[in-house]
């Protein structure tokens, strides 16, 4: 059985060395010591949610806290290209389901997108609460799959704001996911040059549901060859289910350990 993973604040494991003690407290310490009742001698994993993973063993358990001895450390390099999910707001929490699935599958960032014709809206004054819901969905999903990094949930943007952002970023490329298209994600990434050295730093994905709502420009969809447009390199590709976006081994102990996020799609 894989050791439980606990998230710590960014930078909190920068000084961790083999043999040194690390204090796990706060909400995660309470969950580990009080809820899970972990005891001395049990194995745990600690992540700074950015790049560092510590394998440790519990030295002592107290009220809402654990003292952990570092057994090993691992630093995960930034994976290229960076994968960004541009998720349109949806009713009945379907957008949160997409965030959860994408996080489990390896996405690096999530952008809440209030499309021009979105039925679901973040009402004025409730943006912070809604953003917290998305963040609160990504964190446990990352923990479930033993990911070192927790995806960053960015502030909500409109269609105009997103297009302006992409147009100003020379290292970004955009893919529109369409369940009816016959081009696989792997082929679309390859044609964009994203699987080669010097590839775009960010690959953004949006779904065909946004196209059906009329929020994605028609010129973005159905192109037979890659076309340079102001919003970047855009290509449709086939993705009938969230699980088809990226293949991520749930049985892996570490995020991306010995695997590619899109080996053979």
What can you tell me about this protein's structure?
The protein has 265 residues and is α/β, with parallel strands linked by helices. The chain folds into two domains: 5-75, Ribosomal Protein L25, Chain P (Beta Barrel), CATH 2.40.240; 82-244, Alpha/beta knot (3-Layer(aba) Sandwich), CATH 3.40.1280.10. It has helices at residues 26-35, 94-105, 127-144, 159-167, 185-191, 208-212; strands at residues 5-7, 21-24, 43-47, 52-62, 65-75, 82-88, 109-114, 152-153, 157-158, 172-177, 202-207, 227-229, 232-237. Strand 4 and strand 5 (65-75) form a beta hairpin. Helix 2 (94-105) packs parallel to helix 3.
Question: Can you lay out the helices and strands and say which pair or pack?
Answer:
Layout: E1 5-7, E2 21-24, H1 26-35, E3 43-47, E4 52-62, E5 65-75, E6 82-88, H2 94-105, E7 109-114, H3 127-144, E8 152-153, E9 157-158, H4 159-167, E10 172-177, H5 185-191, E11 202-207, H6 208-212, E12 227-229, E13 232-237
Parallel strand pairs: 1-3, 6-7, 6-11, 7-8, 7-9, 10-11, 10-13
Antiparallel strand pairs: 2-5, 3-4, 4-5, 12-13
Helix pairs in contact: 2-3
Which superfamily, in CATH terms, is the homologous superfamily of the largest domain? Answer: SPOUT methyltransferase, trefoil knot domain
Residue-averaged pLDDT: 75
Supply the CATH class of the largest domain: Alpha Beta
Strand content: 25-35%
- Biggest sheet features: 8 strands, mixed
* Helical residue percent band: 10-25%
| Count of DSSP-assigned helices | 6
Estimated radius of gyration: 20 Å
| CATH fold name of the largest domain | Alpha/beta knot
The class by helix and strand makeup works out as alpha/beta
The general outline is globular
Number of domains as seen in the coordinates: 2
Architecture of the largest domain in CATH?
3-Layer(aba) Sandwich
Topology order in helix (H) and strand (E) letters:
EEHEEEEHEHEEHEHEHEE
Give unreliable regions as ranges. 208-265
Give the N-terminus to C-terminus distance in angstroms: 29 Å
- Work out the number of β strands: 13
């Amino acid at each position: 059985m894989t050791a439980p993973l606990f998230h710590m604040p960014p930078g909190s494991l920068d000084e961790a060395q083999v043999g040194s003690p690390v204090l796990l407290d706060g909400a995660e310490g309470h969950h580990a010591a009080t809820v899970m009742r972990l005891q001395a001698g049990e194995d745990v994993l600690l992540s700074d949610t950015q790049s560092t993973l510590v394998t440790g063993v519990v030295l002592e358990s107290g009220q809402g806290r654990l003292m952990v001895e570092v057994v090993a450390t691992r630093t995960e390099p930034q994976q290229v290209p960076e994968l960004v999910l541009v998720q349109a707001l949806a009713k009945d929490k379907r957008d949160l389901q997409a965030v959860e699935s994408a996080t489990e599958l390896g996405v690096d960032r999530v952008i809440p997108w209030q499309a021009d014709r979105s039925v679901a809206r973040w009402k004025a004054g409730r943006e912070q609460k809604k953003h917290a819901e998305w963040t609160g969905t990504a964190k446990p999903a990352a923990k479930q799959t033993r990911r070192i990094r927790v995806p960053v949930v960015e502030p909500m943007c409109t269609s105009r704001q997103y297009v302006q952002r992409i147009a100003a970023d020379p290292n970004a490329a955009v893919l529109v996911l369409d369940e009816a298209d016959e081009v696989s994600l792997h082929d679309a990434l390859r044609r964009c040059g994203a699987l080669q050295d010097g590839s775009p730093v960010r690959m953004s994905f949006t779904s065909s549901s946004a196209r059906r709502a009329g929020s994605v420009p028609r010129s973005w969809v159905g192109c037979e060859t890659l076309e340079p447009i102001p919003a970047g390199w855009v290509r449709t590709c086939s993705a009938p289910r969230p699980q088809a976006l990226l293949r991520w081994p749930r049985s892996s102990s570490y995020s991306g350990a010995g695997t590619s996020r899109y080996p053979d799609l």
